[in-house]
Amino acid sequence: MRIFYLLLFFIFSFNSNNLFADEATDWLKNEIDKILISYQNNELPNENRFLMIEQTINNNFAGTGIGKFVAGEAWQKASKETKKEYIKNFKRHLALNIASMMRGYSNQKYKLSQSKIDQKNNIILIDMEIFSDTGSVVVTWRVKKSKERYFVIDLMVADISLVVTKRSEFNSMLKNVDYNLLEFNKILYDQNNESYKKIID
């Protein structure tokens, strides 16, 4: 009888995890399609396209958590106001990065091919295969559920983490200002403005 109950528990857990992963996949597809639809509309100005991406990033990426990790030791030494300004700059930086990658978009097809739950870290891994004339590339989205909502916490391309890459990139720049987040905010703000001009041209 005990074995029977254990078997039932395993089946229930397995099915619940599958439903959990499928729900996250449907959510992610819906958010990705919002961005792609804007890029399929040739009459939509570049500025409007970017604003759609920025809104999607702000709503669906764990921007504050990612930003804190990327800032490293500079975060601990900063004031509350400086941290707030940095998160604002970082979220725009993230949106501009993704908008820059989307500039080469030309109606490529994609499919969300596999989703699984990483029980150890309590996250969902969703594989997205993007097809082009020369082949395909797989991007793995790392998604976490918090307060009944899903958030993207990272994405991996060829096993390279966007978040870890950004931390390394930012660390090099922060080192030049002695890990002073207030000074770094000025650099990031100026960089964002330059990137924004290129995006909306």
Provide an overview of this structure.
This protein has helices at residues 2-40, 46-60, 63-71, 73-77, 80-102, 162-176, 181-200, and strands at residues 109-118, 123-132, 135-146, 149-157, 160-161. The radius of gyration is 19 Å and the shape is globular. The protein is 63% helix and 21% strand. It has a single domain, classed as Tgt2/MlaC (Nuclear Transport Factor 2, Chain: A, Roll), CATH 3.10.450. Strand 4 (149-157) and strand 5 form a beta hairpin.
Task: Please write out the topology.
Blueprint: H1 2-40, H2 46-60, H3 63-71, H4 73-77, H5 80-102, E1 109-118, E2 123-132, E3 135-146, E4 149-157, E5 160-161, H6 162-176, H7 181-200
Antiparallel strand pairs: 1-2, 2-3, 3-4, 4-5
Helix pairs in contact: 1-2, 2-5, 3-5, 3-6, 5-7
Which parts are unreliable, with pLDDT below 50 for 5 consecutive residues or more?
1-20
User: What is the highest CATH level, the class?
Assistant: Alpha Beta
Q: Count up the helices.
A: 7
Structural class: alpha+beta
The number of domains is 1
Q: State the total count of DSSP E strands.
A: 5
Q: For the largest beta sheet, what order do the strands appear in spatially?
A: 1-2-3-4-5
Give me the CATH superfamily.
Tgt2/MlaC
Helix content: 55-70%
Please tag this protein with its features.
alpha+beta, Nuclear Transport Factor 2, Chain: A, disordered N terminus
Concise summary:
The chain is an alpha+beta fold. The protein has helices spanning 2-40, 46-60, 63-71, 73-77, 80-102, 162-176, 181-200; strands at 109-118, 123-132, 135-146, 149-157, 160-161. Strand 3 (135-146) and strand 4 form a beta hairpin.
